[in-house]
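User: Sorry, what's this?
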Amino acid sequence: MPEQPTPPEPREPSGTQNVSGGVTVQPGGDANVGGDVVGRDKVTQTTTTVTNVGMTPEAVRRLVITVGGLVFATAFCFFAFGAVAAAAALNTFNRPIVSTEAAANDFQRKLQTISALPAGQAFEWPFDETELSSYMRFILGPQIGFDGRARFTSSHQAVFKGPWSGVNNLPVMVVTTIQINSAPLFKTDSAYVQILPLGDNLGWVPVSLSTVQPLIDQINSKIKSGFAATGVRYPPFTPDGTPAGPLTIDGAAR
């Protein structure tokens, strides 16, 4: 018997386009995406192997303990630094001072006397801690949302402390230097906010000077509005850190 010719192998329809990414577009507009790609007359099986990489419960526990320890250590150092840096200024408020309205009025009357001087008139203005602190307590503080007190330091600084509305009535402490031949009388040196109620001397953290600058700006605008300071004389301090006299500002009326 004569040999039969071998029939030709079936061929894919012309016009099929394979696109990378698991998408095959065929004539007629059929498109399928993913693992099993089904054409008009052909099925292609795609197998994907996924490897899961995870941590054991013990490894997770160690990581949580390590991170928690770092957070605690950071917070402890932050609070400790704030407490040490603020300690000297805070200690000045351990001196008992009885603020009185009479002392506040004395401070106010001296300011009014200076404001009434003719421009260029030189003056000496002595005031003690009680007068400045009382003025903050009864006259200026209520005007600017600051329930503050004031103290002098043996390092020739003036410190203001008390709850302030500018930081949601948290206690603030601002250490300042009295300037001469400059527009603002009090220059901010350092600032602290008590973010935890841990008594008078704990829970204080340092903050940027800009945080409390609006408070000092208000104090300066109220106290130094009609004169230029040309000198400042701090009182001597006793061995226990108490000023033995008033602070005196030399100046000239404007």
In short: The CA atoms of residues 178 and 186 lie 5 Å apart.
